[in-house]
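Field reference: sequence -> structure
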Amino acid sequence: MRSVMDCYNELLTHELLSLSEERHLLTMAHKGCQQSRERLILLNMRLVGWICSKYETETVSADDLMGNGVEGLIGAIDGFNLTLGTRLSTYATIGIHTAVGRSPVLQAPIQHPENINQPLKRIKKV
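Structure field:
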């Protein structure tokens, strides 16, 4: 079974985007260019892998975590506002954390609402 770190190490071969390349791809993606959108997703998979590595458990597979992380990344790409002046990775981090953080909750035998699950996580850490 692959771990999230195995997936992450595979993604290290992808180059990082410069600010101008990122802005151009985002502009094209918002205009409907599917190829630009897919390239943004591919080139930000390193961020998804890094965030997913923090959530890895025995009960949730790396593929499930990465899948949920990609959903968060896609939502961030679609909702990103170019006029904010931030990088996509900064904006996407929150969406990816949210999407991946919900993954173990969905596969638990007993499902708690998210507002109850967060305090339970803190109690377990103590």
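Note: The mean pLDDT is 83.
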